[in-house]
Amino acid sequence: GDSVTQMEGPVTLSEEAFLTINCTYTATGYPSLFWYVQYPGEGLQLLLKATKADDKGSNKGFEATYRKETTSFHLEKGSVQVSDSAVYFCALSVYYGGSQGNLIFGKGTKLSVKP
Amino acid sequence: NAGVTQTPKFQVLKTGQSMTLQCAQDMNHEYMSWYRQDPGMGLRLIHYSVGAGITDQGEVPNGYNVSRSTTEDFPLRLLSAAPSQTSVYFCASSSPGSYTDTQYFGPGTRLTVL
Known about the structure:
Chain A has strands at residues 3-6, 11-14, 19-21, 23-26, 30-38, 44-50, 56-59, 62-65, 75-77, 86-95, 103-105, 109-114. Chain A is mainly beta. In chain A, the strands form 3 sheets. In chain A, strands 2, 5, 6, 10, 11 and 12 form a 6-stranded mixed beta sheet that branches. A 4-stranded antiparallel beta sheet of chain A has the order 3-9-8-7, with no helix packed on it. In chain A, strands 1-4 form a two-stranded antiparallel sheet. In chain A, a hairpin with a 2-residue loop joins β7 (56-59) and β8. Chain B is mostly beta strands. In chain B, β4 and β5 form a beta hairpin. The N and C termini of chain B lie far apart (36 Å). The interface between A and B is medium-sized, with 25 and 26 residues.
């Protein structure tokens, strides 16, 4: 079945460090890929998305490229800030020829950024 | 624009009690869904709806019931609460029901079953 695997945390970085959170997927249909972020005590909000192969999603300095050949959608940021501390979820949604694609989530990666 | 709202924010139940978690959206979204979030498990889909009068099961539907009488509201009912249902529950919506669309999440309901 369809699934998402993302690197387990927690991840602790110093401010201005480079961030990579790995995400790989398995899908039988035509997936769209998403990164959602959950700040402490809040619901999830979309960080970025890519809907077809080779698309790059970007937002707030974060980037991820949809790599069909490696079935990956790794999240990167060149210089993290304390305010980036949150839990990050990789997710996919698959089109099955007319059916709504429900989101399938990875387990989440908790990021802590220290000053 | 309130987006997706959920009530209550916190709830404590005793085993066997029933309750309804409320979810409402003001974006005229056709698609709505309920997830539960457990430590180390990510989010798992409980039930979803692609429009008023249409609902379907997700990955973990047992012990939960839903109905969709209006576009705006999608309540989740726990018929007889069990400790295994202790979790954080999120409601989400999107439009027009495409797999490429962003889903918008509510702030969550933290439920504890004793």
